[in-house]
Amino acid sequence: MKFLDLAKVYIRSGAGGGGCTSFRREKYIEYGGPDGGDGGKGGSVWAEAVDGLNTLIDFRYQQHFFAKNGQPGRGQQKTGADGDDIVLRVPVGTEILDEDQETVLADLTEIGERVLLAKGGNGGFGNLHFKTSTNQAPRRANPGQPGVDRTIWMRLKLIADVGLLGLPNAGKSTFLAATSNARPKIADYPFTTLHPNLGVVGVDNVEFVIADIPGLIEGAHEGRGIGDRFLGHVERCAVLLHLVDGTSETVAEDYRTIIHELEAYGGHLADKPRVTVLNKIDALDAETLVETKAELEDAVGGPVMAMSGVARDGVTEVLRALRTQIDEDRLRHKPVEEAQSWQP
Q1: Which residue, 89, 107, 11, is CA-closest to 50?
Q2: Would you state the pLDDT for residue 53?
Q3: What does the buried/exposed string (b/e) look like for 34-60 if buried means 16 or more CB atoms within 10 Å of the residue's CB?
């Protein structure tokens, strides 16, 4: 399945049905009077967050959603049928934006959450509605209200607890594959990861979700490389895991490059808690490891952890450090299976 995190959608709610002007005429009925019914209500357009979706690919092949109009009223005091609503099913974490792509109309972060995007028009009143003691034969009826036309944007921001950051080939996908059941593509060339991946990792009977996004390069906020369009997927994370390639000759510069891109992106992303890890230590000898780690700690201004995603050295310690930065209400505790003795 292709990954799509931004979609433009055209929606229109249904118009209300017009009211009816009618009079009752039956044999042996001396006083008939008005009996025109009201028009039906037009259908509305809703958006609902559902489980089982992690992409907006459905909205690439269908961009227009028009709700049904309400039916007009009829004689014999019959009200027109209401138009059917339309429900746009989107993944959890979808933002609904106005046409300017800046005004947030809704942010659907929980399963089952719903928002009304375009309300259907009310049906018009039939002439029965206008009957009074002084106007017993009204010959007027209201038309139905028109529907609402609007253009909206849907932007998906994945729901994850930890966000992976780093330059291309920093070992992010390898780390995700080593700690979860996710199987992202791994290769020895830059930009192997072209779209975000999610993986559920567990440590000390606790599970949390890690999001792996395509690597950043210098100038990503200006659109270089894949750009920073995927940074939105780590905005909701509680903590960021910054991986630095230990085999690089400029680890301090690599670290500063990512931090600069976070600051240029904005949205308080650079202020989130971060765990900085020197990766690929299996390719370094003991002396080089000490020197490289000290250089990176000077750039960070604090402690740096060391790890090898391939050899899985230090992976558990990194996961535990991430766990301490995640609030308890975001963690998912594994069920404890109690051993039961067999009984006949």
Answers
A1: 89
A2: 84
A3: bbbbbbbbbbbbbbebeeebbbbeebe
Average pLDDT, the chain: 86
Output the six-digit token pair for 2. Answer: 């292709």
Task: At 43, list the tokens.
Answer: 């259908």
Q: Which tokens hold the place of 29?
A: 């009925």
Residue 114 and residue 130: Cα distance in Å, rounded? 37
Q: What is the largest CA-CA distance in the chain?
A: 110
**Would you place residue 128 in the very low, low, confident or very high pLDDT band (cuts 50, 70, 90)?**
very high
pTM for the model stands at: 0.76
Q: Could you give the CA distance from residue 21 to residue 162 in angstroms, rounded to a whole number? A: 63
Strand partners for 277: 243, 305
Give the per-residue pLDDT at 332: 67
CB 68 within 8 A of CB 42: yes
